Each structure stands twice: as C-alpha cells, then as structure tokens.
Amino acid sequence: MTDTLHPDLETLGGAGGVEQRRVLVTDLPGPLSQALHARKTAAVAAGIGTTLPVYVTKAGGGILVDVDGNQLIDFGSGIAVVNVGNAAPEVVSRVQDQVAQFTHTCFMVTPYEGYVEVCEALNRLTPGDHDKRSALFNSGAEAVENAVKIARRYTGRDAVVVFDHAYHGRTNLTMAMTAKNMPYKDGFGPFAGEVYRAPMSYPFHEPASIKGTEAAMRAISVIEKQVGADRVACVVIEPIQGEGGFVVPAEGFLPAIAEWCTANGVVFIADEIQTGFARTGDMFAVNHEGVVPDLMTTAKGIAGGLPLAAVTGRAEIMDSVHGGGLGGTYGGNPVACAAALGAIATIEQHDLAARARLIENIMVARLTELQARFPQIGEVRGRGAMIAVEIVKPGTTDPDAAETSRVSAACHQAGLVTLTCGTYGNVLRFLPPLVIGEDLLREGLDILEGAFAG
Ligand code: PLZ
Q: How sure is the predictor about 5, in pLDDT bands with cuts at 50, 70 and 90?
C-alpha cells in the first residue's frame, strides 16, 4: 500500500532502540514517577506546570518510556518539537560529533561553520526566491522579540499588530503579544506598549458566510482606524494558531493581510514556531496559500529537541540593523546548530512533509467518524500532523473545557499523551512525531475513541 504510513521506522532512520509498542505495567503515574513528582514539588517553582507527571527516561519514534517501565504513545512531540522523532539518529550522531569537538565559542566572538550552514538552509527552505538573511536565537519568544526589533528598525515605526487568540511567548514583549491572560499573563504586567490586537478569522465561531477576505477587511479596518497604517511596523501572525486553539483562518485571510502589509510598507511576519518544519504537510504553513512573508520566526521543530530559534527574511529588512544590534551569548550554539542540520536533513531525505499529509488523512477520517458519534465534538480541523477537535456543549458552539479535560485525562490514563489548547481550554490537539508508525497512530485514535465513550 502506498497511501498508508510505513510502519518500519528503520526506513526513517530508526527509533533509537525504543520498541514501538504501548506498554502499561503500572497505573499512571507509577510509583517511581510519583516519588519524582514529590521531589519536583519540593524543588521546582510551582509556576512550572506539568501536563502528565510521568517521568521520561527514553523516547523514540512514537513512544515515550517512563521510569516505571511504561511506554506511552506520543501525540504531543514535546509541543510540536520532535517532528523527526525523539533522539532521531541523524540528530544524535551530529550532536555527538559536535559536542566532542567544541561546545561554545559565542558566534559573535569567534564564529563557526554550523551557524552559517543553518542560516543557508533556512534561507533556502523558507518561501520566496528573493535574497534572504537569517539570525539565530535560543527560544521562540526570543525569535519573535528580535523579529519585532528588526521590523521597527527597518520601518522606523513603533506599532505591532497581533490577533485574537494569538500566542507568541512568555517574555515581556511576547506576553503583550499573547492574547490569553490565564496562565500566561495574570499578574505579570505591566506589559510592553504599542501592541494592538485585531480580530482573527475563526470560522467555527462565526457565520459561514464570512469569507477569508471579509475577515481580513474586518481586521484591516480595526488596524487603520485604531492604529493608523503608517504607524504600523509589523503584523505578526501564526498561519495556523497553536496555543490559541489550532485555529485555521478561512481561505484568503492570510493572503489579504499579507497584501495589505505590502501595500502599506508594513513588515508581514509569519510566526511559524509551531507550524514549521513539515508539521502541517508542507515545510511551512504559509506555503499552503502561497503567502511569502517578509520575515518568518521559527523554533521548535528546527532542531529535533535542542533549543534553537531563528528569524529569516528579506535581506534589505534583516540587514537594516546596525552591526552588533542583534545577538546573544548562546544564539546559534554549535551543538544546537548540529542538531538542526540533522533534523533538516531528516525532514528532507525522508520527505516528512508527505508523512504529515498521510497522518492528516488517517486522523481526519477517523475523527470525522467520531464526530458523527459524539455530539461534543463540534469541529475537526487542522492541517498535516497538526490536528484538533473543538469540544462543545452538544448542539451549540459553547466551549466545554470540563469535557475536554476529562477526555484528555482518560487518554493519559490509557497511555496516550495528548495536549489541550484554546482560549476557552476546549480544544484537544494532536501533534504526533512525523515518524510515528501507522499502528501506533491508529492505536492512539482507538484510545481517544474509548475516552470519548467514557
Ligand atoms: N510562537 C506560535 O507556539 C511556543 C508554549 C508552551 P518558546 N508554544 C508553546 C508554553 O506553555 O510555554 C510558541 C508558539 C508560537 C512562539 C512560541 C514561543 O516559543 O520557544 O516557548 O519561547
């Protein structure tokens, strides 16, 4: 069969010796995880949350192994990070080679080839055949901060436009850019100024008659009336919103916003931190509608689990910053760069974007069947291996966060790692590693069905 996922992970580089099988030897969390969790509570700041307190010792392919010997199916990928799988062989070998050579010099002091190579790869992989430059950082939030700095420097303008339900990070500027108060912002203000929020296109929560271009006009009108086009440095948008609820804007929304930006000298920044690196069935989510951003922020999937982030974009915008104006001690650390080169090679060599599309086919077909049986499933949406169900009070579009938590907890009990998201906490999201075998994918969906049946 050519239209199903190949179950043999060895053809995808292997799973680091982790047997691709769900195994439950204790209730979850098991006794050893519970003991570690007691230590966590005593040692780690309470503000650092835990979705599922099973403590991991090994992971690969679609499986996480815990301290008690349980093996869980991974539908989270560490929040869309290990697209190539955990400890992917090509990442491991390049990291091992690099870490034995040197671990840090600071690229701003004495540079090294790996950083340059990652920037060359980003300039090649991101959409548009114009001249591009990249700069590397440590986290997604840091990349977003730097993209805004660059856009402000280039335009000489201050205002930053973001959208309802947006998530861009937890630093001071990116908290201001993130929409949801709890848990991200509550009590952490005052926030950075000159950040303005425009209405998003969220098809499930608006009349079907509102087209993408109309939703864009609605947003543009808010920007023009409340901010003023010539004051706007940049518009920052996730092509598919992540933490905000896997919100896929109506067709035409993104291109119309991008066109308006071009017409008004506004830098259009796509935040592809969650959607990037084959996750949505294409290298980047903007490709789906042929949108070419001026700048793009990436992180997560870029380096197979090592901390790395980037801003990539038009050379004239990127190079408008004075020498020494960008940087940071660790940005583009050599070990993280080696990991990125391994992850990118894996994605390209094994065409993981195609696998993301196969995952979409299997998931959407099955979830649509479940939707017909379980009236609390209001919508099935997403793209590639970034798929979600929005949970509602049956017969309405009213969010049901309690039911979402119940279903997610039932999945966890059965050894399936699922995540929730959404402004109203009522979206169950699925982000399996792109190398997951078809058997594990289907088993995960069986568990989900059992959880809905309650
Ligand atoms: N932009 C689109 O998805 C990170 C956040 C998890 P960092 N999303 C996961 C949490 O609760 O902290 C994210 C994102 C988008 C920016 C970021 C920020 O990336 O690497 O977490 O800083």
A: low
DSSP state for residue 230 in the 8-state scheme: G
Among 48, 138, 167, 421, the mutation site with the greatest number of ligand 1 atoms within 8 A of its Cβ is 167
Task: Pinpoint the alpha helices (H) of 200-333.
Answer: 212-226, 253-263, 315-318
Residue from 274, 429, 431 whose mutation best tests the ligand 1 pocket (most atoms within 8 A of CB):
274
In Å, how far are 74, 123, 126, 214, 324 from 315, measured between CA atoms? 39, 10, 13, 32, 16
Which residues fall within 8 angstroms of residue 138, CB to CB, at 6 or more apart?
A: 307, 308, 309, 328, 330, 331, 333, 336
What pLDDT, on a 0 to 100 scale, did the predictor assign at position 2? Answer: 41
> What's the start-to-end Cα distance of the chain, in Å?
34
184 CA distance to ligand 1 middle (Å): 11
Predicted pLDDT at 9: 59
> What are the chain's domains?
9-75+352-453 (3.90.1150.10), 90-349 (3.40.640.10)
Q: Which residues pair with 270 in a beta bridge?
A: 237, 296
Pocket test for ligand 1, best of 296, 300, 386, 427 (most atoms within 8 A of CB): 300
Instruction: Give the C-alpha separation, 350 to 147, whole Å.
Output: 31
Question: 3-class SS at 364?
Answer: helix
What's the whole-number average pLDDT of the chain? 96
Strand partners, 49: none
Reduced to 3 states, what is the DSSP secondary structure of residue 213? helix
Verify whether ligand 1 is closer than 6 Å to residue 40 (CB atom): no
Please tell me the distance from the alpha carbon of residue 303 to that of residue 327, in angstroms, as a whole number. Answer: 19
Instruction: Find the angle CA(347)-CA(338)-CA(49) to the nearest 5 degrees.
Output: 80
Which structure tokens are listed for 365? 């077909």
**Average pLDDT, integer, range 212-237:** 98
Q: Is 170 close to ligand 1, i.e. is its CB under 6 Å away?
A: yes
The DSSP letter of residue 392 is B
Dihedral (CA of 66, 52, 343, 311) sign: negative
